[in-house]
Amino acid sequence: MSPTRLRTLPIVFTLVCAFLLTACSLGITSSKSTPANTSVPTTAATTQATIAATSPAQSTAVVSTVLATNAASNATTTTAGASATTTIANASASSTPATSLISAPVSASGQPLSVAQINQKARPAVVQVTNNQKVQGRFGAANGTAIPAGVGTGFIFDKRGYILTNNHVVEGANSLTVATTDNKTFDAKIIGAYPQGDLAVIQITGTGDLPTVALGDSSKLQVGDPVVAIGNALALQGGPTVTAGVVSALGRVEQEPSSGSTPGAFLVDLIQTDAAINPGNSGGPLLNAAGQVVGINTLGSTQAQGINFSIAINSAKPVADALIAGQPVPRPFVGITTGSLNPQQDAQLKLPANTGVGIASVQSGTPGDKAGLKMDDVIIKFDGQDVHGEEGFVGLLLTHKPGDTVTFTILRSGQQQDLKVTLGQAPKQ
Predict the structure, then answer these.
(1) Is 168 labeled as catalytic in the residue annotation?
(2) Domain stop point among 266, 285, 315
């Protein structure tokens, strides 16, 4: 072998190795490339991306609901023909927080639901409830003609035609008309009403197979979870209105507006949401990400934007069961009227701000009277828990049931003492 050829081989070998190393380097860089905006991959993101790749027919919903803008474009591209491995790498670039991925709409099959899908699932069971009342005649007497006095919403939750709604939707009705989303109308009767909790059950019959919506578990809700409200806002023509938002807070206690001289009922265990709830939405469903009812839309704030309230379905279920069975709704009763203390009164009593509730009157023969409560007593603790105003007192009271014995810590003439109160059953209103 000539010296020239011996010198050429090392050069050729070096060139070949350099070429191979360069090719490998390029290949590794390509497979690991990600968009500029990246975040640490999460298990949830990887799982959702895998679903998108392995189930092309469902990939659009996964991308639109779960992935952020950058990752969504990558997932859309890869589901056109790339492998699951590539999709996972691209999904890792999502800037969506893990909490958003966890609370994204998911159906029983594990696939996400969009707002449109939630609406399609629940809408057939959502009804318009028209409260018909007789017109007053010339001299004040009813002339027998019933006309629509108000419109609200309800939802069919039982194949027997039972509809859950708000009491204020049906209150004072001489007759009720229910309209379904397929333009059928029915007469309805009131099965039972619960004014203290602003709930009512009505029924339509002789209708064949009725669509229903499933009831969910409101105890599983977390602040930030997505929710959808459906209802006949402003009684607009063309069917229910759909709005979407999140759970803004849980366990709220709010008082309904007064009716004349009658104070509004205190509602407890309310879900606060920024999903729009307007007049006409009352009694309609608040739905979770799986299209299940988790609340009954009831109140909307007139003093702020995006502060609306729904009665948690876990509180409404036992009420509905009792009304259908013709049984009294279990509600604890003390037999006192109360009022929150103002800042001056708190200061005089040397109490922290928004502490305590004053007793304005005690009804004779009631549990409060038997326990020794008196007018002008100030309840500062309920079973050891601080009482923060009238709303706080009612909220604590309604966590108990008739027959429970609780301890009221009161201030009387500046002296603190404990009284045992055995709660009674609230009289029917």
Answers:
(1) yes
(2) 315
